[in-house]
Each structure stands twice: as C-alpha cells, then as structure tokens.
Amino acid sequence: MTRYVLRRLVQIVITFFLFQTLTFFLLYAQPGDIANQYLLNPNLPPDAAERLRQELGLDKPPHLQYIQYMKNFLTGNLGVSFTNYPRPVIDIIKERLPRTLVLFFTATIISFYVGFALGKVLAWRRGGLFEYGVTVVGVTLYTVFTPWFALMMIWLFAYKLNLFPTGKFVTPTLWQNAPVDANTVFGRMIYTGILGSVVAFVVYLLVRRLPPPTRNMSGILAVLAGLLGMVIPWVQSPLARYAVDILWHMVLPILTLTLISFAGTMLLTRNSLLETMREDFILAARAKGLPEKVVRDKHAARTALLPVVTSLVFSLAFAIDGGVITETMFSWPGMGLTLLNAVVQEDIPLAMGAFSFTGILALLAHLAADLLYAYLDPRIRYS
Amino acid sequence: MSDASSVTVIHRPLWRVRLELFWKSVRTNWALFIENPIGVIGLAIILFFALMAVLHPILMKTVWDPTVYDPITGYDFEILRHPAPPSARHLLGTDPLGRDVLSQLMYSTQTEFILGVVAALITVTIGTLIGALSAYYGGVIDTLFMRLADLVIMLPFISILIVLSALFKLNMLKLALVIGILSGFGGVTVIIKSQALSIKVKPYIEAARVAGGGDWHIIVVHFIPNLLPLSFLYMMFTVTSAIFSEAVLSFFGLINIRMSWGIMIHTTQTAGYLLNVGQYWWLVIPAGLAITLLCSAFYLVGRALDEVVNPRLRRR
C-alpha cells in the first residue's frame, strides 16, 4: 500500500509539473507579448510595471523565462493582482481557496451518497415507470445549463420564497459590528467540521463492534454524533450567530451543486449494479433465501461500488467546473468567481494563479479518489 | 496454384454483400435502440431542434421581414417598449434590444449543431486514431498518450476554456477546435484504446497479419471499423459537452460569437432583467430550456446507444 501511495504521489508531482508547463505555454503563446499585458495596464504605476518586468524576466530568452516562472510559482510568488493592486495573488488565493474547498467537498460527498443510494434502487426496479422518471429528471439535471439552473434556484428559493439569501458569503448588515472577520469564523467552522467528521467516524467504528440490534443503526448514530461534535463547540460561543449566517449562505449553492451532479453517480451505479447482478454469487445469495434488501445492499452494491469510485475520478473535474459556475452565479467569493472575474477584467496574474490552484485542487482530488479506490480494491494495491 | 473451378463462384459483387450486411446490422441495432424509450425521447428532441434549424432560413425568406426579424440586426419599430411580451407578432416576445426571441432561438440552433458536430468529429477522429495507434503499437506511444490523457481528464474543462478565452480571442470555429482537441486527447482515447486492446487479440487480426497485412492496413481496415460504434457513441457525449461549454462561455460574455443561446441570456443579464424571471420569463426560459433540452437529448441518445454497443447492459 505504501509503495502504491508513493508511486501515485510521484506521478501526481510529475503531472503537476506538466500542468504548470502547460499554463506557462498558454501564457507564452498568447497573441502579442505577455509584457504588453503587464505594461500597458493603466491601473499600474510605471515603477511597478518595471519591477514586474524584472521579476518575470520578460527580457530574457524563453527557457530562462520558464525557469523563472517555475521558481516564482514554487516560492509562492504569483505576482501582484492588477485589479486588487498592490495585493499579492497568493494572498487572495489563500483567502478564497478554503471557501471553494468546503463547497466542493460537501457537495461532492452528498451527491455521491444520494447518487449511489438512488442508483441502487434504479437498478433493482429496472424497466418501471419509476426508473424512466428518475432517469429523465436526473439526466436533465446533469446536463442542465448550470448558470440557468442556478438562476432558477435563486429565483425560486431566494426571490419568490425568500428562504435563503440570493448570494454572497455573508450578510453585510449583520457583520458591521462583528468582533472578528468572516475568515476567522469560517476557519473555525472548518475545524469543527473536521472534528465532527472524526467523531462520526470513531462512533461508527465503535458501534459496529456492538451486538446486532444496535449495530444496525451504526450509520444513524454516527451521523448524530458527528452533528453533536460540530454543534457543541459553538453553543456557548458569541460567534455562533455569525457562523449560522455563513451556513445560511452556503445552503443554496450546495443544494444546486448537489442537484446538478448526483445523476452522474446514479447512472453509473445503475449500470455497474446491472452488470454485478448477473454474477453467480447474486444467484447464490438469492437461492440461500436472503431478503432482497440484503442481496442488494450487502452483496451486489459493494461489488458495484468499485467502478463507481473509478468514475468518481472522471466526474471530479466536472464537479469543479460546476463549482466554478455555481460560485459565479451565487457570487460566492471562492476560486471560481475569482477566476472568472480576473478573466473578465483581464487580470492575467490573478487568472493564472486561480487557474493553477484549480488545477492543483483537481490533481489532489484525483489522488484522493485513487487512494480510496486502492483501499477498496486489494487487487490494485498488489499490482 | 489451385484450379479456379474449385472455388465457389460468388455471383454477387462484394460491395453488395457488404452493403447488405451493413443494412442488416443497422436494422438489428435500430431495433435494439428503439426498445429503449429514453433514446427515442432524445432522438425526438434532436429532430425537433434540427427542424427548427432548417426552418429558420425558410421563414426568413418567406414570412419574416428581415428588418424586423433578423436575429442580430432586427428591430421592431411598431412596438414602443422592448422587451415586449409574447404576441401574435412575436411568438416569444422581443429581447431588450427589440429583436425577436423566436428568431434568435431558431437561428442559434444552426450554430449549436455546427459547433457540436465539428467538435465531435474532431474528438472522434483524434480519439479513434490515437486509441487504435496506442493499442496497436503499445510501448512509448501508448505511455505518452495515456499519461497525456490522464492529465486532460483531470483538468477542469470549463476553467481551461475560461482561461483560454482570456488569453486568446475565441470564435466559434476556434472554440470547436479547442473543445474537439481537448476532449479528443482525454477520456475518449482511454476508452477507445481499451476497446482496441480487445480487438488486438482477436483471431482475424492474427489472420490478417499472417496474410501479409501491414501495420497501417490492419489499423485502417480492421481496427477502425470495429471501433466506430464506440466512437459514434462518444460523439454524442462530446456534442453535449461542446454545446454546454459554448453556452457557459457565451453566457459569461467570453467568446466572440454574434448569436447563440448563451448570448441571449447574456444580453438579458447585461440589460438587467435576469432576476425578474417571473415577469420577463421569455427572455430567460426559452434559451435556457433549449440548451438544457438539446444537451440532455444528445446525452440520452448516447446512453441508449451505450446499451446497443455494450451487450452487457442489455436486458437479454
């Protein structure tokens, strides 16, 4: 297992360098000179332009520029944003990356779970009206024009029903007299989120060792314990209302992102389960007289999970793209919105920085999915 | 040399036999395809949009006055306030710039079809060729293209296109090219390669080699025709992603296209009518619905074809 992980890590590092080279060539190949982009921008004072020119080594030959570019990237010097002058790009990214991560992970996990659960049911009830209905709705949501769908969600839930805010990260009026800024609160929320997940996992492991009647409820108990682990640290805190405000702003983007991406997992689970159900061991399980639910959940679904996890790798990039669009529509100040705004305002350093980190996010998510796959399938580890 | 009289004389020319076999397989596959209502629904939607695309130039020539109904330059002077709600004159109303929404919708359909088909053709050409080559030769070529595919699969597609549109000025054709190349080197190649690997070990490949067929002959005559059904299937998915990407980019106002469904919503947004969906529904709903429907139609057809191409998914 360790060897496998190491090999994957090395591969990811190589891929990352390839990716970074690609972004350099994109920058280098754009029509005109990258120097023009930097030097002709009226937002920048003349001496800053000269400094930028030197930092990027724009007067040097291409291969030295490339080395300079890589060196700059590895030392975290991504240049200075044009639109937020003189704020460094890396500073902006540090502030916004966690927001994207939270949105992306929560939505991915929920949609994976929902998709898997629905996919099981679809395969089991093959050919019924239920299957066609759910497939059509799922595919429509999967291929829906995301900006438009996000808009409809905002219009319905925020504008008509007034349940959630129309977008943004916080409510400005509430935060006017706040003792700390939004990032501090958000950081603590992330920590409690991690704490809650750890508590849930430990409780799950403990409950599974108990005798059957309690053991069957391990999932529910774990979720409850996890929620408690997230809520308890906040009960006495004066910051709780601010945290609730951020959560309230998170609901609609996460709901949208989940709705547009669960169908991918659902359809894959269905196909994978249909293939598994033809195996002999399913026939054997049925012949033993096991209840259908047990055959489905314990025998078929676990085997069918493997290809679904593999294709999770494929759908990660899709989810990140969906995240970029969703963030933009909800004005959620994460990487996606940063990327798009930077591109629209021709803030090339910020755009490239945001793009690089979106790429890194994709690479790391890919690695995580790979490791999960290796953990689930022993055949991978030993090959 | 054997005597010619001992060989059974084939009365029909070879091309007719091939054609008949082709028709037979088309008929069998068609029967499998229409068994699945999901694919039929998708096909019906595609045909509906194709009809719209074909009807637009005809309507412009006959019924619609170009000065009023032109999708880009038209303006209706007889209506005082634009955007105007749907009426007998404008079945789907007018946009904030006084242009007919239905005409824009139908005009854009042509563009979407062309974009989708061009991108899909490029993807499939690249994917099939590279998949066949890396399966056939293996070794360095295989490793190179598969690692490249890994990278392309991992990268978020829309984000790349957004960055590309910042650095280069994209128009419809360049966009189709970029989408085609990116998806061609990505997942399609991997899937087609794995199919090609299973063809490589078939006895008829051995036979062709024994009969003295060269590398190129085997790839073109034996690999590619057997890969085409799978390629055709992935064409459908590429069309979906091409139309979707174009719509997203033009919705954000990032590409240089005169009219498309994405541009229609973009115009609505820049004019400030976006959140008034209830009041100005004809500005947002038709275009958004058209993108969604056409994308899902191609996706559904792709899925139905999947069941035809992939026998393991079949009910029998």
Structure notes:
The complex is a heterodimer of chains A (383) and B (316). The N and C termini of chain A lie close together (10 Å). By secondary structure, chain A is mainly alpha-helical. The mean pLDDT of chain A is 82. Chain A has 17 helices and no strands. In chain A, helix 9 packs antiparallel against helix 11. Chain B has a single domain, classed as Orthogonal Bundle (MetI-like fold). Chain B is 72% helix and 0% strand. Chain B contains twelve helices and no strands. The radius of gyration of chain B is 24 Å and the shape is elongated. The two termini of chain B are 48 Å apart. The chains are: A mainly alpha (383), B mainly alpha (316).
Helices, strands, pairings?
The complex is a heterodimer of chains A (383) and B (316).
Chain A: H1 2-29, H2 34-39, H3 46-56, H4 62-74, H5 89-124, H6 129-143, H7 146-160, H8 172-175, H9 182-207, H10 212-215, H11 218-235, H12 240-276, H13 280-287, H14 292-329, H15 335-344, H16 348-376, H17 378-381
Helix pairs in contact in A: 1-4, 1-16, 5-9, 5-12, 5-14, 5-16, 6-12, 7-12, 7-14, 9-11, 12-14, 13-14, 14-15, 14-16, 15-16
Chain B: H1 14-34, H2 37-62, H3 66-69, H4 101-137, H5 139-154, H6 157-167, H7 172-185, H8 187-200, H9 203-210, H10 215-251, H11 261-270, H12 281-309
